[in-house]
Design brief:
single chain, alpha/beta, eight-stranded parallel beta barrel, 14 helices, globular, NAD(P)_OxRdtase_dom_sf, AKR, Aldo/ket_reductase_CS, oxidoreductase
Length: about 325
């Protein structure tokens, strides 16, 4: 495993195991299996409604906690100074951990600055080893740098061959913020992405799969990358990207796949921002079964079509 060094000196694995949309009944097993297969960065969030299962999987793995890098995220409905601290305590309780390695503001909405003050204090108290943000555009990163005591260590953003945000990365790099990719396989467009002739040809050249080529393309250029799978053989496949190096020419070909637009939600588009505030929830069916019943962030927005209500915010 290769590592990125954050702006506070902490080393972060450059590949991470994501847990978004893993069925709750399989989550602990998948996390435990991934750790046994060599994954050390485990990524979850309050909004995924699976922190309890992730914590169980960590314990079942038998791996020393110090060997792991555990990330969770604060949902924006909990932004605010006191509410952020309460949410952090609840996250630790659900995970069954004494500290986090990384805690992120999940979205660039709501009372970002009061929430960040709370994260700064948690960091100063040693309860979290690094703090950061998710889905923040470069202008917000610059703003954070001028008005806060602690600069974000990480910015987790959508980043894939179809949406290559190299200019965003340049600005984050300039301010010492490590870019981390979510959605490297473009979620629902994964079959389309994997069948791209360029990726097929490069995969054959190196004796690798399209997924491995994508992960190598991102990590080779310093992008920490989180991906998800429930299949043990894919866990092995996805982590097997450190025994080859893409040529400059091959990377130039992959760069041409960039469509220059999000494949998910646009965090600056008014309608998408409205969606986050009204329907940007995770797994609302779990709320009805008593999971996180106290959390407003997990309640359904009545009146929305079923297809909208059951989408998950990344």
């Amino acid at each position: 495993m290769d590592y990125a060094t954050l702006n506070n000196g902490i080393r972060m694995p450059i590949l991470g195991y994501g847990t978004l949309r893993i069925p709750v009944e399989r989550c602990a097993e998948c996390v435990s299996e991934a750790i046994r297969k060599g994954w050390r960065l485990i990524d979850t969030a309050k909004n995924y409604a699976n922190e309890t299962e992730v914590g169980k999987g960590i314990r079942q793995s038998g791996i020393d906690r110090k060997e792991l890098f555990v990330t969770s995220k604060l949902w924006f409905k909990d932004y605010g100074y006191e509410s952020a601290k309460r949410a952090f305590d609840a996250t630790l309780d659900r995970l069954g951990l004494d500290y986090l390695d990384l805690y992120l503001l999940h979205q660039p909405f709501g009372d970002v600055y009061e929430a960040w003050k709370a994260l700064e204090e948690l960091y100063e108290e040693g309860r979290v080893r690094a703090i950061g943000v998710s889905n923040f555009h470069p202008d917000r990163i610059v703003d954070m740098g001028f008005i806060n005591k602690v600069m974000p260590a990480v910015n987790q953003i959508e980043f894939s061959p179809y949406f290559q945000r190299w200019e965003d990365k340049r600005v984050n790099d300039q301010y010492g913020v490590q870019v981390e990719s979510w959605g490297p396989f473009v979620s629902g467009n994964r079959p389309e992405l994997f069948s791209e002739p360029v990726l097929q040809d490069i995969s054959k050249k190196y004796g690798k799969t399209p997924a491995q080529v994508i992960l190598r393309y991102l990590t080779q250029q310093g992008v920490v990358t989180v991906c998800k799978t429930e299949r043990p053989e894919r866990m092995i496949e996805n982590i097997g990207v450190f025994d080859f190096k893409l040529s400059v020419g091959d990377m130039a070909q992959i760069a041409k796949l960039d469509k220059g637009r999000t494949m998910s939600k646009d965090h600056r588009a008014p309608e998408d921002v409205k969606w986050f505030h009204t329907s940007g929830i995770a797994l609302p069916d779990l709320v009805g079964r008593g999971r996180y019943p106290q959390d407003d962030a997990h309640r359904t927005h009545e009146g929305e079509p079923r297809s909208v209500r059951f989408r998950t915010a990344r």
